[in-house]
From TrEMBL:
Keywords in alphabetical order: Membrane, Oxidoreductase, Transmembrane, Transmembrane helix
Parts forming coiled coils: none
Name by which UniProt lists this protein: 2-octaprenylphenol hydroxylase
Species: Anaeromyxobacter dehalogenans (strain 2CP-C)
E.C. number(s) listed in UniProt: 1.14.13.-
C-alpha cells in the first residue's frame, strides 16, 4: 500500500509538471495541488494563460504526453459535442492513439495467458510485425488452422494496472476541479469522470467489443454492399479479440482513377448509416476514415466496434420526428422534441427555447436541401439545448458526432449528393410504420392502450387531488436555488458569529483572570489561546473564500 502511495504521488508530480509546461500551472494554485506536492510542485506565481484559441491545442498536446488513460479521456471528450464547444472537439479529434509496438514475445505471452493455450495450438501462423499499435492494444495478422486470414487484437501488457492507477488520480482531480470551478453547467467534472470510468472499463473488456461486432454482423446479414468482419469466439476472450481479416482501401484514399464509382460508394455509406439508425437501432459510433474500407464492387466494410450507439424504438421515433420538424421548419415541434428526449436541469420557459430554435432555422431559410450542412445544423441544435440546460442522452451526442464525420466523408467523395434526400425514405418508412395497425411491434395498439388508461385514471386522480385539497392534506413543496443559497449564507454567518463570540469570551475570560491576579502566566496563556483561536478561525474562513475558475470562459479560449 505504501508503494502504491509513492507511485501515485510520483504520477501526480508528472501530471502537475505537464500542466505547468503547457500553460496550466496557475490552475494548480487554485486546486491547492501545491499543498500536496510541496517543494516538488512547479514554481508558483504563474499567471493565468491569456484567452486565445490555442488553449484547446495545448490541452490536447498535454493529454498526448500523459499517456494512454489521458489519450482515451481526450477521445471520449471528442465524441461528446454536447460537453465541449466545437473547436475543442475538432482539436481533440487530432489525438493520435499510436504507441511504440510491444515485442512479439510479450504479445505471444498475453495471447497464451488470455486463451490458456500455446500460440501454435491456436494459430497456424502469427505475423510478428504488427498491423497497428495503439495505447491499449496491438493488432497482428494471423492464419487459423482452417486457413482463414484473421486479425488478432491483443491488450498491451500491464495496461490495466496503469489505467486503474490513473483513474484513481483523475477522480480526485475531478473533485478538486469541481470545488474551484465557478460553474460546471449540467455536466460536472465528477460526472464526466464517472462516464469515462465506465467507458474505458468497457473498452478494456474485449468481450464487449466482440458482442458489438457480432450484433452488427447479424443485423447486417443480407446487405451485399456492407461487410462486417466475423468474430472468432473460440479465439477471443476479454483481452484477445480475433476477427476476419478484411482487405480494402481506406475511404479517404478512394479515387475514380482506381476504378471506384465515388457516387455509389457515397450512397452505400449513407444507406449503411440510415439502415443502422432507422432499422437496426444499432450504429457505428466512430466512423472515421480509418474505420471504413472500400472493397471491390464499391462495397464498404466497417472496422473497430469499441464505440457502438444503440437507439430504442422510442428514440428512433423521436429522431424521425425531429428530422421532419427541421425539414418543415417547425420550431415548436423541434423545441418540444428536444425538451422531451433530454433531461432539463432546471425548468426553463419553452417559449425562449422555441424562439432560439426559430433563429437557427431561419439561418437556413431559403437554402436548398443540398446546401444545408446537416452536421452543422445538428451541432447548432445541440449547443442550443446545452445552453438551455437540457442534458441530451449520450446516444444522441454520439450520433451527432458520427453524423459530422459521415458528412465530411460524403462531401469529399461526392459533394453533389444530397444526404437528406437520400435518407428521407428511411425516415418516412419508420414514421409510417408508427401508424400501421398490422405492425408486429404493436406500437399503435400500445398507444391506444395508454390513451385508454389515461382516460380512466385522470378523473380518479383529479378527484383525489380535490379531496386532499378540501381535507387540508394537499401540500406543495417549493424548491429554489436562491433560497438554498441564502440558507447557506445564513449558516455561514451563524458559524462566524459563534466563533467570534467564542474568541471574545475566551479573551475577556483571560483578561478577568489576569486582572484578578490569580496567576499571571495562566491569564496570559488563556488570553493567548483565545487570540490564537480567533486568528485560526478567521484564517480558516478566509481560505474557504477562494475565487473560482470560470469554466465557460476557459472553454471559449
Amino acid at each position: 500500500m505504501l508503494g502504491r502511495a509513492f507511485q501515485d504521488l510520483n504520477r501526480l508530480r508528472q501530471i502537475s509538471a505537464a500542466m505547468a509546461r503547457h500553460g496550466f500551472g496557475a490552475y494548480l494554485e487554485r486546486m491547492r495541488l501545491r499543498d500536496v506536492l510541496g517543494r516538488d510542485a512547479p514554481p508558483p506565481g504563474q499567471p493565468l494563460p491569456p484567452p486565445d484559441r490555442t488553449t484547446a491545442a495545448r490541452f490536447r498536446t498535454m493529454l498526448g504526453e500523459l499517456g494512454p488513460t489521458f489519450i482515451k479521456l481526450g477521445q471520449l471528450l471528442s465524441s461528446r459535442p454536447d460537453v465541449l464547444p466545437s473547436h475543442w472537439v475538432d482539436e481533440l479529434e487530432k489525438l493520435q492513439d499510436a504507441c511504440p509496438p510491444v515485442g512479439v514475445a510479450e504479445i505471444r505471452e498475453e495471447i497464451e495467458r488470455g486463451l490458456g493455450r500455446p500460440v501454435e495450438a491456436l494459430f497456424a501462423a502469427l505475423d510478428p510485425v504488427p498491423l497497428a499499435s495503439a495505447s491499449i492494444a496491438q493488432v497482428h495478422r494471423a492464419t487459423t488452422h482452417e486457413g482463414v486470414q484473421v486479425v488478432v487484437k491483443v491488450q498491451r501488457p500491464r495496461i490495466r494496472e496503469q489505467i486503474e492507477s490513473d483513474l484513481a488520480l483523475l477522480h480526485d482531480l475531478a473533485g478538486l476541479l469541481e470545488a474551484v470551478v465557478e460553474e460546471t453547467g449540467i455536466y460536472t467534472p465528477t460526472g464526466v469522470m464517472e462516464e469515462f470510468d465506465r467507458t474505458i472499463h468497457e473498452e478494456l473488456d474485449f468481450s464487449n467489443e466482440a458482442r458489438n461486432a457480432t450484433a452488427m454482423y447479424e443485423t447486417s446479414a443480407g446487405r451485399e454492399f456492407l461487410v462486417i468482419p466475423r468474430v472468432h469466439k473460440a479465439l477471443s476472450c476479454d483481452t484477445v479479440l480475433t476477427l476476419d481479416y478484411v482487405e480494402g482501401v481506406k475511404v479517404s484514399d478512394v479515387t475514380a482513377e482506381a476504378g471506384f464509382d465515388l457516387e455509389q460508394v457515397a450512397r452505400n455509406v449513407i444507406e449503411a448509416s440510415f439502415r443502422q439508425l432507422f432499422e437496426d437501432g444499432l450504429f457505428h459510433g466512430d466512423p472515421h476514415p480509418g474505420n471504413i474500407l472500400v472493397l471491390p464492387g464499391n462495397r464498404i466494410a466497417l472496422l473497430d466496434f469499441g464505440l457502438v450507439g444503440r437507439l430504442s424504438r422510442v428514440q428512433q421515433e423521436a429522431l424521425v420526428t425531429l428530422i421532419v420538424a427541421v425539414a418543415l421548419r417547425d420550431p415548436e415541434t423541434v423545441a418540444r422534441v428536444l425538451n422531451r428526449i433530454g433531461v432539463p436541469d432546471a425548468r426553463a420557459p419553452i417559449t425562449e427555447f422555441r424562439e432560439d430554435i426559430r433563429v437557427i432555422l431561419d439561418r437556413y431559410l431559403g437554402l436548398r436541401l443540398d446546401e444545408i450542412r446537416s452536421a452543422t445544423l445538428l451541432r447548432d441544435l445541440l449547443d442550443l439545448a446545452i445552453r438551455h440546460r437540457i442534458r441530451i442522452p449520450k446516444e444522441y451526442a454520439v450520433l451527432a458526432k458520427a453524423s459530422v464525420t459521415i458528412e465530411g466523408i460524403i462531401r469529399r467523395l461526392y459533394p453533389k449528393l444530397d444526404i437528406l434526400e437520400v435518407g428521407l425514405p428511411y425516415a418516412k418508412e419508420l414514421l409510417l410504420s408508427r401508424f400501421n395497425p398490422s405492425d408486429a411491434s404493436g406500437l399503435v395498439m400500445r398507444a391506444l392502450l395508454k390513451l385508454q388508461g389515461l382516460a380512466e385514471d385522470v378523473p380518479t386522480q383529479l378527484s383525489q387531488i380535490l379531496v386532499d385539497l378540501e381535507g387540508g392534506k394537499f401540500r406543495v413543496n417549493v424548491a429554489s436555488d436562491a433560497i438554498d443559497r441564502i440558507g447557506g449564507h445564513v449558516r455561514a454567518l451563524g458559524v462566524l458569529l459563534f466563533l467570534g463570540l467564542l474568541a471574545a469570551g475566551l479573551t475577556v475570560g483571560g483578561l478577568v483572570v489576569l486582572a484578578g491576579g490569580e496567576g499571571l502566566l495562566g491569564g496570559l496563556a488563556l488570553g493567548a489561546a483565545a487570540l490564537l483561536c480567533a486568528f485560526a478561525a478567521a484564517y480558516h474562513l478566509a481560505t474557504l473564500r477562494m475565487r473560482k475558475i470560470s469554466l465557460r470562459r476557459w472553454l471559449k479560449r
